[in-house]
Each structure stands twice: as C-alpha cells, then as structure tokens.
Amino acid sequence: MSRRVVLKISGECFCPKDSRGITMDSVMHLAEQVARVAKQGVQIAVVMGGGNILRGGQFKAANVSIKEATAHYMGMLATVINGMALQSAVEQVGQETRLMTAFPIDAVAEPYLWRRAVHHLEHGRIILLAGGTGSPFVTTDTAAAQRALELEADVLLKATKVDGVYSDDPVKNPHAVLYSKLTYEQVRQQNLRIMDQESIAKCGEHGMPIQIFNFRTEGNLERALLGESVGTLISAGQ
Ligand code: UDP
Predict the structure, then answer these.
(1) Is the CB of 132 under 6 A from ligand 1?
(2) Atom of ligand 1 nearest to the CA of 76
C-alpha cells in the first residue's frame, strides 16, 4: 500500500519569517515540495492552520464585542483562505488537488466526507483540509490528529518553526536538549507541549506516530514526507 501522510502546516508556512498574511512565494515553495513528493506516489492530506491571518484566541482580551465562538469561526475561515491559496499554488505546479472544508462553503470547496477524502487520496490527489474540525475552541492540531486517525495515515507530520521537541524552551534555556525520539508516555510525563494533550493521547491510543520538524530548514519537508527521520518522532516505542 502507498505511504499516506497527514501534514499539518501552521499559518506561518504561508508567509516569510516574522511576517503575516499570505505571500505567494512562500505558498509556491510549499506547493512545489508537496507536489514533488506526491508525484512519487505518496498520498498527502494537508491540514492547514490560519494563524498568519487570525486565531480565535486573539480577540479574547482585546474586544469583548466578538463572542469567543465567533472568533474561532473566523479563525476557521482563515484556514479556508489559506487552503484556497495553496490549492492555486499546487495546481500551478501541475498536481491535482481537492479543497475540502469541515463546514460547507459550497462556492469554493467540497464538504469533507471521509469516504470521498480516501477516494481522492487513492487517485493521487493532494487533499487540502480546511476549516479545522468545524467546531470552535480547538485548534487545527486537533483537526490534524483527528484526520490522521480517520484517514489511517502512516504518520502525522507537524511542520513547525522549531527543530523538534526540546526538554525545555531552547530560547530561555541554552542547555535544552533536542529529542530525536520520544514515547507518548514521556511526552505526557514531562508535560512537553507539542499539541493538546487529548490529541496526543488519542494518537497514542491508536499508535499514530507524530513527527515534528522545522519546515524552514531546506529539504526537511520533503524528507519528512518521504519517511526520513527529521526532527522528533513520537511513537509507542523508543
Ligand atoms: N479553529 C477552531 N476550530 C478548529 C480549528 C481552528 O476554532 O477545529 C480556530 C481557532 O481559533 C484557531 C484558528 O482557527 O486559533 C486558526 O487555527 P490555528 O490556531 O490552529 O492555526 P495555526 O496556529 O496552525 O496557524
């Protein structure tokens, strides 16, 4: 069976470092890498974040006139905007895609239907999963874990701005150690913050490996998509 991966890319992958919004050069670079791997037969589902545009949490203190749930839906919509940009970029490099949303936006995307998603993957289409879980108060990390499980992916890849999981905050602690491998149990015991505990526990329960790596390091994304060891791998055994 072909390798199947769920790739979680945060909103910051859609723009240069320390920037916001969408920069098509960044999106094209992302698309080129993903498309190259898809051409080698890897089935790829991308779950995109929206933090480059907005996160629901940012309105919490600043503006009480936006209800928290509304703000989260705005965040989910931000992921759809990113999804549309990525779809254009992936098509530009000649790879077939489908943009699927967790809640209906019929004019631009098809609804996420599990069976249909599997069908697209089996036909070599890169599926772009926007809208998170479709429910407020969680993040797209939760959505990525959920989709990895239901799509029976071989691994959940999380592209981040750090090299992997450290024993402590490497910015504050120069002695922080970068782990190449961890177990779900170690992540829990050491209270390492990678994604929400519930999602990690779910992945652990179902033996879904999670690989965390720095997408800004050239070559990392393709290596991770192809199954090479970059960053930190979290799995059942050391
Ligand atoms: N969001 C949500 N439910 C979801 C996924 C996302 O409410 O299932 C909202 C939430 O407000 C979140 C925002 O959408 O902050 C953007 O997603 P995220 O923060 O995960 O983006 P990233 O940090 O990965 O760029």
Answers:
(1) yes
(2) 14
